[in-house]
Amino acid sequence: MGGPVATFSVWDYVVFAGTIVGAAGVGLFQAFRGRKENSSAEFFLGGRQMSAVPVAMSLTASFMSGVTVIGTPAEAYLYGTSFWLFGIGYVIMSLVTAEIFVPLFYRLGITSAYEILYTGLVIYAPALALNQITGMDLWGVLVATGAVCIVYCTLGGLKAVIWTDVLQMVIMLAGFVAVIARGAVLQGGLDKIWEDAGQGGRLETFNFDPDPLKRHTFWSMTIGGSVTWMSVYAINQSQVQRYISCKTLRHAKMALYVNMVGLCVTLSLAMLSGLAMFSIYKNCDPFTNGDVGSTDQLLPYLVMDILAVYPGIPGLFVAAAYSGTLSTVSSSINALVAVTVEDFIRPVWKNLSVKQTTWLSMGLSVFFGALCIGMAGVASQMGSVLQAALSIFGMLSGPLLGLYLLGMLFRTANSIGGLTGMFLSLVLTLWVGIGGQLYPPTADKTNPLPLSTTGCNNTLQSNMTTEAPRTTSVTHPCVRPPLADFYSLSYLYISFLGALTTIVIGLLVSMITGGCKQGKLNSQLFVRKSDLVCFSCSRKSQVEFCSLNQIIEKKISASVTHPLDAR
């Protein structure tokens, strides 16, 4: 194989457009059907009447976005199945978040500073797919994506976002299944795909090398991956809003465990899609052969190569990537609006009416949607969309996760220690993360797997084998600065580094400045033994959770703030 492939047919455009319009329509219908009043609780929290399953699917879809649809198969194609170990990280993250953070999250004020940049990256990912498959202008796709999200997020609020996510999750999974099924037919079965992957070195999953500079090892995927995803699911505003929207604490915890299963299923399908792609292109790598301009366009290229004979199926795949993006972008916009209104506007203008708040929220949805479209331009300069997304989480959410853990677990911590630790940790993670972008790790740290173009019809060099692209970053190693090796720290450890630095420095500074000076601490602001029981919530706990309505609406008496805020 190799060379140009087919482009979108009329039926592909019909399926794509119909899927996107249908998904947005379902979300808006569900939002307006169940809306009892035009209030901020309805707009931000869906009336707090959501059940576990739709919230779980929404949790999965929110961060299994176009980044996952585009980036994870390319990861399996280039580096093999080590990324599959993220499944262990998902399990650890779900346990810790459900049993430690969820019982406390509605007592904390959450602000997510990195939401806008990550959302820009998410918009950029499917734009690459549409650009590769349809030839549509990249910026035209970016603006269209943001516009669609702005419409149904502005009109429908969180309930529209959640119900749209449900349909979009199904579409994403269907897109992966179509690629795997067609690949298995062409290659002679899943056994053949697995055999080719083994011969190509793609099945060497377990690498127990303790070197933290190695890109992917068992330890970086389990330890670093767990902390990275914990910073996403435990303290991220758009995820916490979903927990709050559940009927009860039990439904909130159950949503996380169902979400854990959804994450693992999505990851497995994405990895199998990447292995199928390698089996098909094992002798003719489209990137090395010049058929695609970026490794993130490999899967869209494959779709048009093997599925164009079935009109409408390529349209379904693009809808899958696009649906993931709509899910994440709409979630992020809703979260950004909620944070702005509840934490910045209401404390200053306390007498805003319900109608004024609703119109203000809609206006902010338009503003943040436009801002996220602009951030997509920044994201386009960050390399592989998958690694870039996880690096953003690490750099900016790791220190924030450390701050919350410091306040939840250590009674001696005070606000001076917490803020000092978080600030210095943020400086450190940004230094390492940006340094890694400027001086990416060399091939001995990233372990690229060989790619071949020996079977390409238009290849001039008939016996050409290359390493995976974009792994050796510096042509002349002598120009690398002395700290370049430190910049090679696995991107999965950046979040762990940030959280640990915040906690250690926070505790030291707190002890130096006299520790917590409060005479009496509210025990409900810390992790309790009763929080660590999965579904055996007492009646008292259920009543406490239901009081969330008043807590969020009043936005905050001194007894329900973060422990560090009270010191």
From TrEMBL:
Keywords attached to this entry: Cell membrane, Ion transport, Membrane, Sodium, Sodium transport, Transmembrane, Transmembrane helix, Transport
Database matches in InterPro entries: Na/Glc_symporter_sf, Na/solute_symporter, Sodium:Solute_Symporter_SSF
Bilayer-crossing regions: 13-32, 52-71, 83-106, 113-133, 139-158, 170-190, 217-235, 256-281, 301-322, 359-379, 385-406, 418-439, 491-512
Subcellular location field: Cell membrane
One of the Pfam families matching this protein, by short name: SSF
Record's bilayer topology term: Multi-pass membrane protein
GO annotations of cellular component type: extracellular exosome; plasma membrane
Domain of life: Eukaryota
GO molecular function: organic acid:sodium symporter activity
Main localization of the protein described in the UniProt heading: membrane
Single GO biological process annotation from the record: propanoate transmembrane transport
PROSITE patterns, per the entry: NA_SOLUT_SYMP_3
Family to which this protein belongs: Belongs to the sodium:solute symporter (SSF) (TC 2.A.21) family.
Protein name per Swiss-Prot or TrEMBL: Solute carrier family 5 member 8, like
Lineage of source species: Eukaryota, Metazoa, Chordata, Craniata, Vertebrata
